[in-house]
Here is the input.
Amino acid sequence: MKKNLPWLAFLLIATVWILVRHNRGTEYNSVTGLVFGTIYHITYQHDKDLKAEIESKLKSFDYSLSPFNDSSVISRINRNERMETDSFFRECFNRSMEIAKETEGAFDITVAPLVNAWGFGFKKGAFPDSATIDSLLRITGYEKIRLEGNEIVKEDPRVMLNCSAVAKGYAVDVVAKLLEDKGIKNFMVDIGGEVVVRGRNPEGNLWRIGINKPVDEPANQELQTILALTDVGIATSGNYRNFYYKDGKKYAHTIDPHTGYPALHSILSSTVIAKDCMTADALATAFMVMGLEKAKAFCDAHPEIEAYFIYSGEDGTPRTCQTKGMAKYIQGEEKIDAEGRKP
Here is the structure.
């Protein structure tokens, strides 16, 4: 019997070691890289490095929807090349058309010529005059383009598409689906600040996402508040960094498709929480165009959408406003009521 004791002790230790490893669970991995001119950061619970697969998926996405890629589907459509679209383009296009209708054209991917004219697109334009704006408005409008089968049909060949206000959010959803298809339940996908979170973070808690204060200095990353959440998409749009001054007037990059001019509302940034990041991304931009009151009315009519707005008060002081359901996501001392007051 004594001769077997060392062997039994070894088996006991091995069993305990296996149980401990099993209970500890799979470690989290993190991958970081560059895509679409911005940084992506992805954290996920899995036992393999998936960076190569993630970047392969993003490369395919880039060849579909990047206006900076001359060979992409969207670039070829803008050049009026007849071609069949791919599944990435079709899903993005169809959802963009739905959101355009829901927002009464505040979100519109045919705004590309106007964006370029104001110098915010992939072509640096001169400061446009009113005649130029009026001319470009005639070829702007989501009703002027449609998808027939797998091909795009334009009412006017000068119509151009720009999916920049929705593509990053959609790319986040695409990577999230890649991870879900592998059975991964806990992850965060962040591409340039557009985010999808699922499950729990490495500490076993809700994922924590910060909302930056709307300041002009890019180096200043001070947070306005922190959200704790899971199983949602979240996106922020702001007019406080991408802008320029001319004749003492500030022009921000969000173009109103109805007027052809940069939106001049009081909202400095809008953060949107939705079921998917593509919807959150598009609505965050639409709300910048709508202005605070119309954006709040839209959220009231769509209770599945939560939003947090930072806007300029009448005295120029930044203030905040949020949907009622947003309170459950806001953490600690930063929690405020629906009118932007701390309790």
